[in-house]
Amino acid sequence: MNRPETDNRDLFAIADLAKEFGISTRAIRFYEAKGLLSPERVGATRIFRRRDRARLILILRGKRLGFSLRDISDYLSLYDANRSQQVHLLIDKVDERLASLERQRDDLETTINELREIRRLVDERPAKAG
Predict the structure, then answer these.
(1) What is the DSSP string of the chain?
(2) The Cα angle at residue 89 between residues 83 and 91, in degrees rounded to 5
(3) pLDDT tens digit sequence for 82-121
(4) Can you tell me the distance from the alpha carbon of 73 to that of 54, in angstroms, rounded to the nearest whole number?
(5) pTM for this one?
(6) Which of 13, 35, 103, 114 has the highest Cβ tally under 10 A?
(7) Which GO molecular function entries does the Swiss-Prot or TrEMBL record give (predicted)?
(8) Nearest-5° angle of CA 77, CA 89, CA 35?
């Protein structure tokens, strides 16, 4: 399997990462402002390393899965720490997110059934002559 060219690079410009992940440079600067990314600076230019790219992958995955920036930050704070702590935090957050999504699914199913019942009642009721 061929690895993408970016996996072999050590340094990235903000525009490179934005293009690769289909996000804006503003989003990357936002993650930096929140302390989730820490690029080096050469003058006013941000220099991202492989570690920053890996963290960005985790940030975007976490957002896609519905985790808050706080949850993502907590997870990333353990990025270089004890692997066991990282796994336990991840399991806790995943279980919380699954429970939340399952509650939302149950609420949606209830709402859909109620709307179908209303529709059925309306369809069965004869229309009044105007």
Answers:
(1) -PPPGGGG-SEE-HHHHHHHHT--HHHHHHHHHTTS---EEETTEEEEEHHHHHHHHHHHHHHHTT--HHHHHHHHHTTTS-HHHHHHHHHHHHHHHHHHHHHHHHHHHHHHHHHHHHHHHHHHSPPPP-
(2) 100
(3) 778 888 888 998 999 999 999 999 999 999 999 999 999 9
(4) 14
(5) 0.71
(6) 13
(7) DNA binding; DNA-binding transcription factor activity
(8) 20
Give the span between the Cα atoms of 37 and 51, in whole angstroms: 9
Supply 94's token pair.
């995943």
Indicate the domain borders of the chain. Answer: 1-80, 83-130
- pLDDT bucket at 4, cuts 50 / 70 / 90: low
Domain 1-80 annotated CATH 1.10.10.10: no
Report the distance separating Cα 100 and Cα 57, nearest Å.
Answer: 23
